[in-house]
Amino acid sequence: MSATIIDGKAFAERLRGRVAAHVTRLKDGHGLTPGLAVVLVGEDPASQVYVRNKGKQTQETGMASFEHKLPADTTEADLLALIARLNAAPAVHGILVQLPLPAHLNAELVINAIDPAKDVDGFHISNVGLLGTGQKAMVPCTPLGCLMLLRDHLGSLSGLEAVVVGRSNIVGKPMAQLLLGESCTVTIAHSRTRTIEAVCRRADILVAAVGRPEMITGDWIKPGATVIDVGINRVERDGKMRLVGDVDFASAVGVAGAITPVPGGVGPMTIACLLANTVTAACRAHGLAEPEGLTA
Ligand SMILES: Nc1nc(=O)c2c([nH]1)NC[C@@H]1CN(c3ccc(C(=O)N[C@@H](CCC(=O)O)C(=O)O)cc3)C=[N+]21
Question: Which of 29, 216, 257, 273 can pair with 144 through a Cys bridge, CB separation 3.0 to 4.6 Å?
Fold first, then answer.
């Protein structure tokens, strides 16, 4: 038996359609155009591709896109000054500082300088705290996208055994908080977890976010489990660069009940949720009703 393939690309397309419809309503009904500012420091080629895609999709949904490309040797003071300007700019409802930042910049300090109401990545300590205490927050895009796919596939997640592999601040930890919010029994596994295979094999929901290509093989998966692969790893295969996840798709697909592919799974959801968060931020900034189904 072969797993159902969860089509993140198609889901993301529909989500972007709903975002675009809401943008039209905001423009026509309130003269409000949601705006997203993306800040890129340095010239990492992968980051440039992401930033370009974000800008393109932002415009396609009818929102305003502001791109700020700064040289790799930008000082912290200059970056903080830009963030202060974006915080104060009424046309900007969302601010994303592309990570990772060059090593001479303190990423924590920079992220926490963003107005939490404009923090569409959900990385500001205020949003982290709000999410952790079950209050209304800006929710990190990748975990939010994973949650939408899980709800769509499973309906209620209540009482299910969820294992998140990876404990990063940007995926693992917020993912675990969201799953807890759905009344899952949540385990966070990581590089020091003993008998990690056995821990994973308990999972009804397995979220892989470790950044190690194809680490999780079919024998780590409970038959019928729903597997969400957050990994985006560029590897060389037969002389060609290919994108693979943290899950070994070939062996997992025969065991899992459902699985997200890479590419075409979680990745497109991340960008769609960024656009959704920007609309949510714009509505909150203007005291307008938030669109249904765009938040957690
Ligand atoms: N502040 C910040 N927020 C982020 O959300 C953020 C970031 N920094 N830094 C970099 C990572 C990476 N990221 C991706 C988004 C979409 C795809 C995506 O759409 N992937 C496609 C494939 C794209 C390709 O072919 O390369 C897919 O999986 O189908 C991938 C990766 C967001 N990130």
Answer: 273
* Beta bridge pairs of residue 35: 64
- What are 207's strand-pairing partners? 164, 228
240 is catalytic: no
CB distance 233 to ligand 1 below 6 Å? no
CB-based contact 89:80 (threshold 8 Å): no
Told to judge if 98 belongs to the known catalytic residues of this protein, a careful annotator would answer yes
* Tokens 């899992």 belong to residue: 256
Q: Are 115 and 88 in contact (CB under 8 A)?
A: no
The answer for residues whose C-beta is within 8 angstroms of residue 7's C-beta and 6 or more apart is: 264
Q: Is 54 noted as a catalytic residue in this protein? A: yes
Report the distance separating Cα 203 and Cα 144, nearest Å: 19
Q: Which of 121, 232, 241, 246 to mutate to test the pocket of ligand 1 (most atoms within 8 A of CB)?
A: 232
CA separation for the pair 122, 174 (Å, rounded): 9
Q: Is the pTM of this model over 0.90?
A: yes
Rounded-to-integer distance, Cα 252 and Cα 261, Å: 11
Query: What's the CA gap between 292 and 194, in Å, rounded?
Result: 41
Q: Compute the distance between CA of residue 8 and CA of residue 14 in angstroms, rounded to an integer.
A: 10
User: What is the percent of the chain where pLDDT is above 90?
Assistant: 95
Please indicate if the annotation marks 168 as binding a ligand. yes
Measured by CA distance, the residue closest to atom 11 of ligand 1 is 99
Quote the DSSP letter at residue 101: P
| ipTM of the shown complex | 0.97
C-alpha angle 199/142/262, rounded to 5°?
Answer: 75
